[in-house]
User: What shape does this take?
Amino acid sequence: MPTTITPTKTEPKPRRQLEDHDHGSGRRPPTDKRTGGGGDNDNWNDRPNGRRGPRERLVRYRMGIFFALASDLMFFVAIVSTFFVSQSTGHFDAYNNYVNEWSPTLIPPILWLNTAVLILSSITMETARRRMFHEVDVMDEWLGLGKPITRAAIPWVAATVVLGIVFLIGQWIAWTQLATQHVFFLSNPSSHFFYLITGVHGIHLILGIFGLAAALVGLYVSRSLETRQIMVDCAAWYWHSMGIFWLFLFTLLVFFQ
Amino acid sequence: MSSSKNSAPRHYLFSTDHRVIGVQYLVLALVSVTIGTLLSLLMRIHLVWPDRIVPFHGPILPEDYLALVTIHGTIMLFFVLTTAPQSGFGNLILPSQIGARRMAFPVANAVSFWLTAAALVILLSSTFVPGGSAISGWTAYPPFSAIASAGPGQGAGMDLWLASIAVFAVAGTISAINTLVTIIKLRCEGMTWDRIPLTVWGWFTAALLSIIAFSVLLAALLLLFCDRHAGTSFFVPTGDLINGVIHAASHPGNGSPLLWLHLFWFFGHPEVYIAILPGLGLTSMLLANFSRRRVFAYRMMIVTTLLIGFLGILLWGHHMFVAGLNPYAASAFAVSTMAIAIPASAKVLSWLVTVWRSRPHYTTAMLFSLGFVSLFITGGLTGPVLAQPILDEYLHNTFFVVAHFHLIMAMAGIFGLFAATYYWFPLMTGRLMSESLGRLHFWTTILGAYATFLPMHLTGLMGEPRHYAQLIGVPNAAGHLLAGTLPLNRFITWSAIFLATAQLLFFANLIHSLRYGKPAPPNPWQATTLEWHPALHPNAPAEASEERIVVYRQPCEYLATAGEELILPQWSTEAIPNIKPE
Ligand SMILES: [Cu+2]
Assistant: This one.
């Protein structure tokens, strides 16, 4: 038996909603926030589609980088898990003795220096990133009074590139030092991981240096301030993450072998 | 957009328009599904008539059969069930459903499509290298896959397989990032989290799983590649003996194939949810739409979607019950696997309550959604069975498992795709697909699906193993056992041929309706979601792109008055009257 559904009272809501910036869910307080980009919580009245506040594009790209980094984190998590599994795996030899072939790789001391260089590069990069959002300078660039932001940021980005290359050269020296001690990629399960971890991290840094170089070029070439901000900002978050990843990996190599 | 500036290849091949890219993905999936289906037919025919000679090829050798298994599985899982719902319809429909006019990163979107296409080409090219394509199944279990000299398909074919999957993983990750940022950042005004259509929640959860799982697979591929070419032994056990050669000198160390299984299935299990989640969401929306009802327990459906995704990451170990697992770990994986039955049953409950005692409009799209529900139930029921380590011990390497995942993943997934195609075809082309042909397609397909995959449970219970190239010619009692399954297997093969032939109806319908289909009204299904909004319609006038889109309510709200139906689309400003049942 179908129930009869009778509409009784109708209350016209829409007008009130527009005035209150209330989109009808009935739970959210009216808001006057002018920036941001998501669907929630944002007042978009009198703003055409596609222009949702000054930092909308920046936030979008930043979020993209964060998801990519989350994905990359899983990559390193997988390799570190394998590290621990391999470390504790052994086998029985012909005489029924349990053999664990893991012999810890001695960390070349230069890695400490490299780590310091990488931390320093993160500091220079953060300086560059913050310069991109210096409010007075942003105003100047918007008004067309020169390019104070760009001038201030370029040396810091360039310094980061140099420090990044120094770090990579340092890693290479560490590899050659190990090689002179006859510790190669194939020597031991432990050395597999030493070379693998430093290797894939190095590749990530090379990609980061390409990103920084692109940001440098962008700082010269790009006319839109927002594009320049995005390039430096995203390159910076990537660079910081690689620094943090390295600290974890370095701790792993030094203390958990 | 001025089309005169853009030349044709630029417009249709290297476009960054999300709709064009969506269609590109769908075409890619259509090519793939055709190849994959033909390969499966070859397998079925060889299984019951092993003496048949394949034209241009000759007799099918056991390694050829395993190559068929591998390429069929890889193509279907990656290039059809992942690509079509997530990337294909995701690109085509997702932005409009949340009131956005584009994806967050259009160029990255095009890049990820072309990487996917490259991955397919790499995979198919492995057929032509010496040794043939990979034969280790879509799971590429070491130690065989780790040693290039292990046998046919483990040389260049395996390298190409690894390369193909690596490229696909990168493409999948880029596409998932794009999806996530689009959903989080580009929603229109009023499109709050609890008003997002459930289809979008499906895409969202699948994208989350993608960014977590694909990079783990990438790491595993890297390690396997080192084993194959750099002489490491992450996955090769000590003193492994293959083809009379002890691989002690070439692979020193204590690798473990089980390590690969852990890494692979940490990706592999979420992967099957990536394939099915968009279908789950779409089914909820379609059932409600054609029943003119609200989705029962809308917020609970959001929670169950996320819960299925979350649990989906935790339960990879059930693929390893027979491979060797700490018994305590097996218990933990058994519990977490069975736990997924709870949100899954909640979904089924919601679907049934939504449709219950309504007067559904039995369009083809609705029929395929109901078919999805049916297959989700029948295929899902064997899930908890296989989640028991003890039962799995017997069933895992038999056709019972093949039946299970083909019903729930392959068939339910494909039914979701068919429902999506019939439902959104008017949006893509402005024409309706033929309903009578569609209905015939549905009934033949569901009949063929059940006739093909239900009996596989029986042959599995009778002990028919997976990956056996022949059932005839095996000596002793085992041979007797296998020969006993032959009549049923012949029936399955005939059903499979019937099922594949029925798909010609779909192609006929597709091609015919593209040219001669009935012109569709703007909102032919009385849908409530935003992709049918006049301003977001693909052939909306140019000035409509300036129109502000505002959402006022959840999808699937209808008003039943005496005799006539009143739909309240998400963009409708009409207030919902107080409803009092008498
Ligand atoms: Cu599974």
Residues B 269, 318-319 surround copper (II) ion (CB under 6 Å).
